[in-house]
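Priority: medium. Attachment 1 of 2:
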């Protein structure tokens, strides 16, 4: 197994997007092989685009191919570890149907690309036309006898190994003290203190694989959490805020977010990239920045909610919620 510290960089989903985009543009053989995975035989490359956004959401890689029946769109969603967004598969179909209705294409296919460990956990009732693992793509690339293909295969395998390490680190049975995790959390806190004056991050030396954060100016009972290895950040509204929060937030959930109740709390989740437990924080600052920017989005929502909502009665907080956000041992 390739050690993360020996690899050139911290692989992120955008890297996979651009890798696939490049392969589609330089290799007709790759395009034909990939199209075959979604039932298109004899496809010829037309064009490919990265991060195509409409009012129905984002397509990571939009590949157009020609075949006897006409022009077909292959709409690719890449994942490494970020949780699936609500209705993400359905929204891919909606974008495909919109392209068909516009007359731009004769048909479309949706394709989920991810590590095998991710794909096997996606419910079978999610109607992707195809699912292909990074490992399968990497195996195909290594058989093409090209230095570029070998390098791309290494990147794909590194992404799969990153997910494996993250899931191992997040296992409840692995909650013994971990020096690398302690250092990661310490560096993460310093990054927040240096760059985000509107966020409060106290020392958290527990065994959690997550970090609890408070927002300046927000009342007790509203806080935030970054789950390092599960691929999301969240706003947490504790019991006294739940009823009003559910009504207020229902129509204000950001694109790709999800609102749910859990253990008497209300959670608003946004997806983000996972951390690699073996890499130092400085190699993952971009991942941290994107996650914290999403926490700031949640903080802005929380501030608007508080400013427009009648304060709840100050009933005593329950034992499990009456904690200092800086000393949560989980």
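Attachment 2 of 2:
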């Amino acid at each position: 197994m390739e050690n993360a510290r020996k690899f050139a960089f911290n692989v992120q989903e955008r890297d996979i997007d651009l890798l696939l985009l490049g392969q589609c543009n330089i290799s007709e053989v790759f395009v034909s092989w990939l199209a075959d995975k979604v039932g298109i035989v004899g496809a010829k490359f037309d064009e490919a685009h990265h991060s195509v956004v409409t009012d129905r959401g984002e397509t990571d890689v939009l590949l157009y191919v020609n075949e006897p029946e006409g022009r077909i769109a292959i709409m690719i969603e890449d994942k490494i570890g970020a949780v699936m967004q609500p209705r993400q598969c359905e929204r891919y179909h909606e974008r495909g149907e919109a392209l068909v209705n516009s007359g731009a294409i004769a048909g479309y296919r949706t394709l989920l690309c991810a590590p095998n460990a991710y794909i096997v956990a996606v419910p079978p009732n999610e109607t992707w036309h195809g699912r292909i693992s990074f490992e399968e793509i990497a195996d195909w690339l290594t058989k093409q006898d090209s230095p570029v293909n070998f390098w791309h295969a290494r990147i794909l395998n590194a992404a799969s190994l990153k997910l494996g390490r993250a899931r191992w680190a997040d296992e409840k049975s692995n909650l013994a003290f971990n020096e690398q995790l302690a250092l990661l959390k310490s560096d993460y806190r310093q990054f927040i203190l240096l760059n985000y004056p509107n966020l409060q991050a106290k020392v958290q030396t527990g065994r959690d694989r997550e970090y609890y954060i408070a927002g300046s100016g927000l009342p007790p009972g509203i806080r935030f959490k970054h789950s390092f290895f599960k691929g999301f950040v969240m706003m947490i509204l504790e019991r006294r805020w739940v009823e009003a929060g559910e009504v207020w937030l229902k129509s204000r959930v950001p694109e790709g977010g999800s609102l749910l109740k859990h253990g008497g709390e209300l959670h608003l989740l946004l997806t983000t990239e996972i951390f690699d437990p073996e890499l130092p924080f400085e190699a993952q600052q971009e991942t941290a920045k994107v996650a914290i920017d999403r926490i700031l989005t949640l903080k802005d929502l929380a501030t608007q909610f508080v400013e427009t909502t009648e304060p709840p009665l100050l009933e005593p907080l329950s034992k499990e919620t009456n904690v200092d956000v800086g000393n949560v041992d989980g």
